[in-house]
Amino acid sequence: MVTVKFVGGAKKSFSTDQLELDIDEVTIEKLLELLLEIKPKNTPTLDTNNILIAVNGADSSAMEGNMTLIKNSDLISIIPVIHGGSNKKIVINTGKKLIQVVEIKGTRKINVSFLDDLRKEFPTIKLQAISINFILNLYHLKKILFISIKSEKEDILLSNKLETDILMRFAATRQIAEAITLAGIHQKNNFILIAIGNKTVLDILYRKLTPLVVEIFSKDNSSFLKKHFKITKRQLDSISSKTPLEDLLIEKAAILI
Predict the structure, then answer these.
(1) pTM of the model
(2) Domain count, the chain
(3) Residue 41 maps to which CATH number?
(4) What is the pLDDT averaged over residues 186-196?
(5) CA gyration radius for the chain?
(6) Domain span at residue 43?
(7) Which pLDDT belongs to residue 64?
């Protein structure tokens, strides 16, 4: 028997927050196929391309992805990633945490004090800024966020703050000062602002930031990331995956634990 727990909007797709399935030794890919077969017809669609899947609390992308084998008594969590309008906002609902992600246009006037000022104005929100150069795409972003959240849950953060852990993992370093220098805010460079809090305050933050927000992930950073982390074609070719670069970057973030 396998327990499938639905988080956030996934509950609406199945009209429940949990299912018990009599299955064993099946892959996540087969599980998703089964779930789509048994989903009630008159409920919202489950977008399997925009979900996080955890097996007993561990991110499946850090295991074998959709080929991860599910065994008897496993707990599978289905966590949807919600996109905001106009490709300018992403909201990730992890069940206990709501994460809002936007891209801010860099200017001469925006520097590290920008983040400090926001933290003072919104003390109930956890905020972090990551240089756009260090984030490849949504898949890369959400997987590293999931690693940090899992680390906080297991009390193995790289520092005493979740937001600092996030920055260090994107920079792939255990040194806070180095992470800030490499992947923090730089004048005139766009950056991703990650905000963790409740919906009401996140909505207020977004309204304040709207004049500075641009279309998210419009830049291809693959060349920069391969050069910075010295990732070779041989390394990429050795990985049996549709997303080898993302998987290598996620691995670099995960092994910092």
Answers:
(1) 0.75
(2) 2
(3) 3.10.20.30
(4) 95
(5) 19
(6) 2-80
(7) 74
